[in-house]
């Protein structure tokens, strides 16, 4: 830009004039900035010309010597515009002040804001402010003013500072994190405050402001400020003289006392009044692990029952740590200490690492250790953790977990469980002592801490059960000592064995008891004479009988002990005087003795030929004498008739007789006479065609053959058919037989019986006519027409509203109930059979009529079946039942269990219908639970119900149990290998595989024994040599087949006795097994066992046999001389399939010899003696109607107690084959055609079940199938045929709500499906003008 300028003319003042270059002056370069009189309105050309003029003038002036004057002015910042600053002329000499005439200006630089901030008068040189000045923006101005005469004034304007700014920090707040372990004197650097003002008005200092709301700390402040002093040089070049600003810690912090400090830092300047700025400092105290955990108690004391299970809570210790985070987290542990016992106290307990809960870790035993002391550590989670300890003393409370022990010492001769029947009253039989390992409740506090302290027996009561007063217990003086004494007379013949039970009961809560079974035998005295079965025996023998022919068998019995000399009899004959026929031709010698008797068996036989013409009759006297000391005897008379020779057998007129006999025929009524030809015969009657058991129901006259009733016969209780065998025998011993079949004819002797006889139900008042209300059921035990039941409704109040199906017993509603209020109706139903008998007790039906629009809730299924394992946890789901929601109601359905859960083992969710367990289940006590669940719709008093069958599935929760924990058996040293020594018997309450037991030998020393895994029979495997110990111990294990298996142990001690100097015995077989049908008659011989003595003289020794007394052997008997085992009680395969017992044998001549034994196993074979039975007498099923077949709608189940084919069942339909079929193998009832409720509501099906036995047995039952309605029919208007219209006329001008016509619709469905709602369809021409209700 070329130098230019303009003169400042008088009266012209304009801002923004064009600036020129400075005027060159000595020692300074510059350019003029103003022109005299210039204006902003000058054109560019004018300005250019003025510039050339000023430029030329300046160059001209520069050539002359100009004087330069200095003028310094000052003005305060912040003054208003037009404030007077000074006069440029004041810088000129006084002589020139009046000659100035105007000024040219020149600034220091091109961007000087002089003319923006000041007004300079061009003529007078007066300087005024153009705006409010800010020293912080510009603190001085400099320019040059030249007069027209060439004088130059250097003007300096200083802007004076005023206190118009407050100190300010870089930010309003600051957060510091300080460790609570920081030592006093620690400094924390803070940012300093900045004040744009200068000098005294800038920041002069800092103050730590104490909040007025906080009380003054007596210990003094935690912090103080440290900073530089004003005027001191700052350390960094850019820093303030007061920096650095530090916050200094005066004393130690404690986070647990104060977690945070909020400080206010105030910065102030030197103005009057002073200005301030603030900085808020939030100081957070960081936690350090400076606090150890502290327990709430100095010592804990607790008690726990000794039967507490592992995991049971004992007590809770609690420690707190005031630190934060991991430093404040407390972890618990038990400090292991030196143990006084093999297991230290810490081994029995555990403590929750986080919870501090002390729990039992392993089973406790107060009898071993009554108290425990633990040292529990509490350790925090710091890097260097702090630790605290506390002592926990735990007392183990005694639980009555040890039953008393009973110890028996027999005081009888030989120490055996035997007492003589001649024992006097008060004689001692045994010494009984009792003890208990548990503690005495009164002494328990004294016993704590003394392991093993047991209870004296003073708190144990001992009682004696059984014996019928023959024995009693007497106190022995010392606590826990009793004597078993004879209390009443003993008679072995009336009772030879007493089953006594000693029961020891402690005083615990609940008390524990121990039972000791004692089989006390009564030793025999020879106090019973023999007794003949008859006083006079009659017999006959043919004169043609050869010598040695048995004529008659006399039998006497001795009530003394069998097998002893007291009961062993010998028979002898005493011949009476002989009366011979005087006309005989034979010598007198022929009238001599003709008979002899076997002294052992009592069989009388001929010793020579007989001649009826010489001696027609013989009388003998038989003497039976026992071998006791002294011997006792008895006699009987035997009369023998010598019969003529007979060559022809009797002949029945008919071989088979068929006869019908009405049941309940009077006793003595004779209904049939059989007759056999050829002379005199004697008739006998037997039960069964192949049996020789006397008939109990009938008897026959032995002389005329009339068969008569001997007991009352009930066809419903007794067999419907009897097969009898009639035998006719003549005097010569020839016989014939005939068969009689008696068919028992039914009479109407049973009236129908309702079961149940009382019914209660609720129905809605909106129930439609034709609805099935309830089904009553009566049964009649008679058969045929006498067993067919019909039903009738007994007239009564409002009974006309109902009707009953006379065949099925289903009661239907015949009229509407809407006109009735909520009420209760009582109906009575009578059952009548076709013989005219009526039920003694009629069925009472109570029907509650509920006036509600809601029908009772109906379940989706009439019966639910669920299964659940017996070991499921409480609150486990079992199954869900669901009722259908009503179509015309939004009310919720609620559920409840109404019956079948007496023990409250189950619960049901009131809205969801989920059945859950709420108590432990046990298959062994209740394998099946049948619940009745009710569903209620909202608040409606009507409800529906369903049956829920819950099967509790067995788990292996019971271990096999031996009758005793240990046992002992004695054997001879000469016992042969393979001999059965012992039968182990254990029982398991579980079922199926869980209850099936296998036996093994867990350990034995020495290994010379084996065991049958299925039978539990222990055998000797090898000979017993001289090196065999006198006692051998075996541990027998009984283990079931469950998963996982359960087991128990039995310790068996085998005592080996030395061989006595007598011939030893052995059985031909070590174990005898036989299969016997359950239909075998009593007294039938099933098995003969045989033992034989060892040694050269063994063949001449006589052996005796007996059975070991037991529950199994009581079913059988044994012939003592022959070893034949026979049946004494009827067998029943369904009750017992196998019998195990032992048989003993000994030598009669050697009373001191050892007896030997063998095992007998009898397997019972099943016969088809049980008919199938249904689980339900009558079954009711419901199935929805459907246009397609429904398939399986129910299952009929029957059971048969027989096994194999006898228990295999097949099912058949006897009726209603049009709609249903039956699966013969599963019993599933199948709907194989579509069912229509509107066509047929009820179906009656007769199901036959038969087994596969020979001959087969069968049973039948009735199944009632109800077809429930679905909404498959549309409503229709009867008065308007389909496709037609109904025309109604109405006069105009009729008032609103006037009845125009009545229409009604019908629906073939039932219930809610048949309820019709009326409305007027929209869109029609007159829609909105008519309404329908």
Describe this entry's structure for a reader.
The chain has about 1350 residues and is mainly beta. The strands form 29 sheets. It has a four-stranded mixed sheet, with no helix packed on it. Strands 8-14-13-10 form a four-stranded mixed sheet, with no helix packed on it. A hairpin with a 5-residue loop joins β46 (about 700) and β47 (about 705-710).
Overview in brief:
The chain is mainly β and 1333 residues long. It is built from 5 helices and 92 strands.
**Class inferred from helices and paired strands:** mainly beta
Arithmetic mean of pLDDT: 82
Coarse morphology: elongated
Provide the gyration radius in Å.
63 Å
Report the uncertain regions. Answer: 1-64, 445-456, 582-589
Number of helices: 5
Helix content: under 10%
- Order of strands, main sheet, comes to 1-7-6-3
Give a count of the beta strands, DSSP E runs of length 2 or more.
Answer: 92
Distance between the termini: 106 Å
Percent strand: 35-45%
Largest sheet descriptor: 4 strands, mixed
């Amino acid at each position: 830009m070329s130098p230019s300028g303009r003169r400042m003319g008088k009266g012209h003042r304009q801002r923004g004039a064009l600036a020129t270059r400075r005027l060159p002056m000595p020692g300074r370069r510059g350019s003029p900035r103003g022109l005299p009189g210039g204006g902003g309105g000058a054109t560019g050309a004018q300005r250019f010309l003025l510039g050339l003029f000023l430029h030329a003038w300046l160059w001209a002036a520069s050539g002359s010597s100009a004087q330069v004057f200095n003028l310094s002015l000052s003005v305060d910042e912040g003054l208003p515009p037009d404030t007077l600053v000074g006069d440029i002329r004041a810088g000129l000499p006084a002589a020139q002040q009046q000659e100035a005439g105007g000024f040219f200006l020149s600034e220091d630089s091109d961007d000087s804001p002089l003319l923006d901030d000041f007004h300079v008068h061009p003529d007078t040189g007066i300087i005024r402010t153009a705006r409010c000045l800010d020293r912080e923006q510009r603190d001085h101005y400099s320019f040059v003013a030249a007069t027209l005469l060439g004088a130059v004034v250097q003007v300096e304007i200083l802007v004076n500072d005023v206190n118009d700014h407050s100190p300010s920090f870089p930010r309003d707040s600051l957060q510091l994190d300080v460790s609570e372990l920081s030592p006093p004197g620690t400094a924390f650097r803070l940012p300093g405050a900045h004040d744009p003002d200068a000098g005294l008005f800038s920041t002069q200092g800092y103050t730590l402001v104490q909040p007025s709301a906080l009380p003054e700390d007596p210990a003094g402040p935690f912090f103080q400020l440290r900073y530089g002093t004003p005027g001191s040089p700052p350390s960094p070049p850019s820093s303030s003289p007061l920096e650095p600003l530090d916050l200094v810690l005066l004393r130690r912090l404690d986070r647990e006392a104060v977690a945070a400090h909020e400080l206010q830092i105030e910065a102030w300047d030197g103005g009057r009044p002073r200005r301030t700025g603030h900085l808020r400092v939030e100081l957070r105290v960081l936690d350090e692990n400076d606090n150890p955990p502290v327990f709430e108690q100095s010592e804990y004391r607790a008690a726990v029952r000794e039967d507490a299970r592992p995991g049971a809570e004992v007590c809770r210790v609690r420690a707190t740590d005031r630190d934060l985070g991991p430093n404040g987290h407390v972890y618990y542990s038990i400090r292991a200490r030196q143990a006084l016992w093999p297991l230290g106290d810490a081994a029995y307990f555990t403590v929750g690492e986080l919870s501090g809960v002390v729990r039992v870790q392993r089973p406790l035993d107060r009898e071993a250790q009554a108290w425990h002391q633990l040292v529990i550590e509490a350790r925090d989670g710091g890097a260097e953790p702090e630790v605290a300890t506390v002592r926990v003393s735990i007392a183990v409370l005694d639980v009555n977990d040890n039953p008393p022990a009973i110890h028996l010492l027999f005081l009888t001769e030989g120490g055996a469980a035997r007492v003589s029947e001649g024992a006097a009253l008060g004689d001692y039989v045994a010494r009984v002592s009792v003890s208990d390992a548990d503690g005495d409740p009164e002494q328990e506090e004294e016993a704590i801490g003394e392991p093993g302290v047991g209870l004296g027996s003073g708190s144990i009561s001992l009682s004696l059960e059984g014996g019928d007063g023959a024995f009693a217990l007497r106190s022995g003086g010392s606590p826990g000592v009793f004597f078993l004494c004879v209390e009443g007379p003993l008679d072995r013949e009336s009772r030879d064995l007493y089953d006594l039970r000693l029961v020891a009961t402690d005083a615990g809560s609940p008390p524990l008891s121990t039972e000791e079974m004692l089989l006390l035998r009564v030793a025999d005295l020879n106090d019973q004479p023999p007794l003949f079965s008859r006083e006079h025996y009659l017999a006959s023998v043919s004169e043609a009988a050869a010598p040695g022919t048995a004529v008659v068998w006399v039998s006497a019995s001795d009530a003394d002990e069998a097998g002893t000399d007291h009961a062993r009899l010998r028979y002898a004959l005493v011949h009476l005087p002989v009366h011979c026929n005087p006309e005989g031709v034979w010598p007198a010698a022929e009238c001599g003795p003709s008979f002899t008797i076997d002294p052992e068996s009592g069989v009388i036989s001929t010793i020579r030929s007989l001649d009826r013409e010489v001696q027609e009759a013989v009388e003998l006297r038989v003497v039976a004498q026992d071998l006791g000391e002294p011997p006792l005897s008895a006699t009987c008379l035997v009369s023998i008739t010598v019969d003529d020779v007979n060559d022809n057998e009797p002949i029945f007129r008919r071989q088979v007789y068929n006869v019908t006999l009405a049941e309940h025929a009077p006793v003595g009524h004779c209904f049939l006479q059989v007759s056999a030809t050829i002379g005199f015969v004697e008739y006998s009657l037997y039960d069964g065609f192949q049996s020789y058991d006397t008939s109990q129901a009938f008897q026959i006259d032995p002389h005329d053959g009339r068969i008569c009733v001997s007991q009352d016969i009930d066809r419903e209780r007794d067999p419907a058919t009897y097969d009898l065998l009639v035998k006719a025998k003549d005097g010569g011993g020839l016989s014939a037989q005939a068969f009689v079949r008696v068919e028992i004819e039914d009479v109407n002797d049973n009236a129908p019986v309702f079961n149940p006889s009382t019914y209660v139900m609720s129905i809605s008042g909106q129930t439609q006519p034709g609805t099935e209300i309830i089904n009553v059921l009566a049964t009649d035990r008679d058969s045929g027409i006498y067993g067919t039941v019909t039903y009738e409704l007994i007239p009564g109040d409002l009974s006309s509203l109902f009707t009953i199906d006379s065949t099925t017993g289903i009661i239907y509603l015949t009229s509407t109930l809407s006109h009735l209020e909520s009420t209760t109706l009582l109906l009575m139903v009578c059952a009548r059979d076709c013989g005219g008998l009526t039920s003694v007790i009629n069925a009472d039906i109570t029907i509650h009529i509920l006036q509600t629009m809601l029908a009772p809730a109906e379940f989706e299924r009439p019966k639910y079946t669920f299964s659940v394992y017996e070991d499921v946890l409480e609150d486990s789901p079992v199954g869900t039942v669901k009722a259908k929601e009503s179509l015309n109601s939004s009310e919720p359905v609620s559920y409840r269990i109404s019956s079948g859960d007496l023990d409250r083992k189950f619960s049901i969710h009131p809205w969801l219908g989920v059945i859950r367990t709420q108590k432990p289940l046990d298959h062994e006590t209740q394998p099946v639970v049948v619940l009745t669940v009710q569903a209620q719709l909202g608040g409606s008093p009507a409800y529906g119900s369903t049956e829920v069958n819950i099967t509790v599935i067995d788990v292996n929760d019971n271990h096999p149990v031996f009758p005793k924990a240990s046992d002992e058996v004695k054997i001879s040293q000469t016992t042969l290998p393979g001999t059965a020594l012992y039968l182990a018997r254990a029982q398991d309450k579980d079922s199926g595989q869980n209850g099936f037991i296998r036996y093994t030998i867990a350990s034995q020393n020495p290994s010379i024994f084996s065991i049958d895994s299925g039978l539990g029979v222990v055998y000797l495997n090898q000979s017993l040599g001289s090196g065999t110990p006198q006692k051998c111990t075996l541990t027998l294990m009984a283990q079931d087949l469950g998963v996982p298996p359960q087991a128990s142990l039995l310790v068996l001690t085998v005592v080996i006795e030395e061989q006595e100097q007598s011939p030893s015995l052995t059985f031909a077989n070590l174990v005898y097994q036989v299969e016997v049908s359950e239909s075998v008659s009593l007294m039938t011989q099933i098995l003969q066992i045989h033992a034989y003595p060892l040694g050269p003289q063994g063949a001449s020794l006589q052996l005796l046999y007996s059975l070991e007394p037991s529950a199994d052997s009581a079913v059988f008997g044994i012939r003592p001389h022959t070893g034949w085992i026979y049946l004494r009680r009827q067998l029943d395969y369904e009750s017992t399939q196998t019998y195990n017992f032992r048989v003993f044998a000994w030598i009669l001549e050697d009373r001191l010899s050892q007896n030997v034994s063998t095992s007998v196993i009898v397997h019972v074979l099943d016969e088809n003696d049980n008919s199938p039975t249904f689980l339900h007498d009558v079954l009711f099923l419901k199935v929805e109607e459907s246009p397609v077949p429904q398939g399986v709608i129910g299952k009929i189940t029957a059971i048969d107690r027989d096994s194999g084919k006898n228990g295999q069942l097949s099912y058949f339909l006897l009726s209603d084959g049009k709609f249903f079929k039956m699966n013969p193998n599963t019993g599933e009832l199948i709907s194989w055609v579509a069912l229509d409720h509107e066509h047929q509501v009820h179906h009656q099906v007769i199901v036959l079940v038969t087994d596969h036995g020979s001959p087969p047995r069968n049973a039948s039952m009735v199944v009632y199938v109800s077809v429930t309605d679905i909404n498959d029919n549309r409503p229709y208007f009867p008065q308007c045929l389909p496709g037609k219209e109904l025309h109604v006329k109405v006069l105009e001008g009729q008032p609103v709500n006037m009845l125009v016509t009545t229409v009604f619709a019908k629906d073939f469905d039932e219930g809610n499906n048949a309820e019709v709602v009326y409305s007027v369809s929209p869109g029609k021409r007159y829609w909105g003008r008519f309404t329908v209700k």
